[in-house]
Design a protein that fits this description.
211 residues; 9 helices
Length: 211
Amino acid sequence: MATTALLVLDLIGTFAFALNGALTALRATRLDIVGVVTLGMITALGGGTIRDVFLDALPPATFLDWRYLAVAAGGGLLAFFLWSYLVRINRAINVLDAVGLSLFAVTGALKAVDLGFGPAQSALVGAITAVGGGTLRDVLVRQVPTVLSSGLYAVPALVGATAVVVTDLVGIRGPVAGVGAAALCFAIRLVGIHFDVDAPLPPGTRPREDE
């Protein structure tokens, strides 16, 4: 995929996760503007930072390109000032999370491919990129990380990352392939949310009673 298209997808995912992290902060805690924007930025930039550390691409791109910081801060500020309107949107937080999850799965996997990593490693890096920011967000607001409590969180990320790696292997690369893989991840995640679907639990384990 062209560098410009990859950057655009990465920035859209950053913005979506920044909104998501800030809205989560406003719902789960009583934070001031600094706390809300900070949590939004950590959510937005955490996955990409973890990715670059894994890939030994240091310093992380999020600290080399001012656009990442600007987009993340902008998303956090937007959520802070418009939260009373945004929280009225049905399942806004879950949808934003699914958008960020999907786009980061794709961009993380493709960056690993560009650096010469193998297909399996690239797909795994994509999944880690996707769930990294959300995991940091949940830990900071003292919630069980979604990646540990929802079977259809890491799974769609891995599916999306694998899909874009496979298309690259067969010579299909570009914005359409990236968006298509992200859409697949997004659709699986929303199906899981809507129908409350999880991966199989250990035998004898009772379903969670809070959902």
